[in-house]
């Protein structure tokens, strides 16, 4: 995840929504109806990053530190 991203601002059908970076994973998992499972092998870090990148690539605009000031 990008440490400079403070959150995500919704557009289109997500207009009016804002998800902070620390809640981005939980929101994406809830909307996609994904629950974390304990399976052999630790792919969680890669999955977490991929899910956030994918979920917020559509109707969302990343809000970065420079934009917030």
Describe the structure in your own words.
The chain is α+β, with helices and mostly antiparallel strands and 69 residues long. 35% of the residues lie in helices and 20% in strands. The chain has three helices and three strands, in the order E-E-H-H-E-H. The chain has a three-stranded antiparallel beta sheet. Strand 1 (5-10) and strand 2 form a beta hairpin. The longest helix is centred in the C-terminal third of the chain and has 12 residues, at 44-55. The protein is globular and about 40 Å long. The relative contact order is 0.29.
Cα end-to-end separation: 21 Å
User: Which shape, going by the Cα principal axes?
Assistant: globular
Strand content: 15-25%
Number of E-type strands: 3
- Uncertain segments are none
Strand order of the largest sheet: 2-1-3
Number of helices: 3
Question: What's the Cα radius of gyration?
Answer: 13 Å
Helix content class: 25-40%
What would the average pLDDT be, to the nearest integer?
88
Could you give a short account of the major beta sheet?
A: 3 strands, antiparallel
SSE arrangement, N to C: EEHHEH
Which secondary-structure class do the elements indicate? alpha+beta
Provide key terms for this protein.
3-stranded antiparallel sheet, alpha+beta, 69 residues, 3 strands
In short:
It contains three helices and three strands, in the order ββααβα. It is an alpha+beta fold and 69 residues long.
């Amino acid at each position: 995840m990008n440490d400079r991203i403070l959150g995500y601002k919704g557009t289109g059908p997500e207009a009016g929504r804002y998800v902070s970076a620390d809640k981005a994973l939980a929101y994406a998992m809830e909307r996609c109806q994904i629950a974390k499972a304990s399976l052999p092998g630790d792919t969680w870090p890669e999955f977490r990053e991929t899910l956030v990148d994918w979920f917020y690539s559509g109707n969302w605009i990343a809000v970065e530190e420079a934009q917030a000031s």
